[in-house]
Structures are given as structure tokens and as C-alpha cells.
Amino acid sequence: MAILEILNYPDPRLHTVAKPIKEVDASIRRLIDDMAQTMYAAPGIGLAATQVNQHIQLLIIDTSEEKNQLQVFINPKIIEKDGEREFEEGCLSVPGVYETVTRAAHIKVEALDKNGQTFSLEAEGLLAVCIQHEMDHLLGKVFVEYLSPLKRNRIKNKMLKLRRAM
Ligand code: NI
Questions:
Q1: Residue 2 lies in a domain
Q2: CA of residue 45 to ligand 1 center, whole Å
Q3: Is pLDDT at 163 greater than 90 in this prediction?
Q4: Residue 5 within a domain
Q5: Which one in 42, 110, 134, 155 has a CA-CA gap of 20 to 30 Å to 92?
Q6: How many CB atoms lie within 10 A of CB 131?
């Protein structure tokens, strides 16, 4: 397993639209293992393949306390959603920034698991937020894009300054 480099906002590669995965093979499972190690090391509760510069429809999530319940979503689709809920979000690609975003309160998602089997899952609370946040990454969207242009620019400048300082 390997720790992968996470792209940081405003890296333009974060705006790449991910392609569906045709076959869940050994190379995909290897990427899942590397992404899991990367996410746990960060530490984070979700990671989309886009963030490690792999532009395929794959995301992983673990919202458990013990960090032992990895959930894998391949080619995820939201098939139902309702309600609205505000949540303070963060992102491994925008370190140190936490902002409130409004999303659907309840979703039903359909995806493939790491064995290529279809499953569906109903989610609310943190898990629902996390799935929607990571699915946005696959569409090339970073959560700061929900904020006002003023706020977004402030974050962009802060990130660029941080990068120059490294
Ligand atoms: Ni994120």
C-alpha cells in the first residue's frame, strides 16, 4: 500500500469530470487500498479518486469512530433525495477550511462495491453529507464552490499563499 499525493485547491485537476469504471479489477482494488491508507493517514472521513488525480468514479468513506468501516462506492448514483440540512464541511483538498453547506438531508444511493456488486444504501446525517460531498468531487466540484465568490476568493488566496510557503 502507498500514501498518495492529495491535490490541493485551487489545483485545476480537481475540476476534472471522472469517468465511469468499466471493470472492478485488481488495479481498482489496489487503488482502493492506497486511497484508504491515504485517507486514514490524513486523517479524513472521505476521499474521492479525483483528489488523488485518478479521474474515475470511485470514492471511499469511513465515518465510524474506530475507523474500521470502510465503505466503497464505485459509479455512484443518487436515486432519491429529500429534505435539506446544513452541515459544516471540510475537505482534505482544502486543508484548514470549514464552511457550512446546504445539502439533501436524506439520500438513497446506488453503486458498485469493491467486488463489483451493485448495492443501494439509504443515508442521512454525516454519511449523507459525506457521500454528496465526495460525489461532487467526481463531477469536478469542490465544496468551496457553494460559497459566495468573495469567500471563495479569500480561500483561494489563502491556499495559494500556503503553497508558496511550503
Ligand atoms: Ni473533499
A1: no
A2: 9
A3: no
A4: no
A5: 110
A6: 25
The domain that holds 69 is classified in CATH as 3.90.45.10
What the block records as the C-alpha cell of 166 is 511550503
- Is position 134 annotated as part of the catalytic site? yes
Dump pLDDT digits (tens) for 42-82.
Answer: 999 999 999 999 999 999 999 999 999 999 999 999 999 99
Question: What pLDDT score was predicted for residue 166?
Answer: 72
Which of these is catalytic: 66, 88, 99, 134?
Answer: 134
- Cα separation of 47 and 134, whole Å? 7
Host domain of residue 65: 12-165
Number of domains in the chain: 1
Distance between Cα 23 and ligand 1 center (Å): 25
Distance 48 CA to ligand 1 centre (A): 7
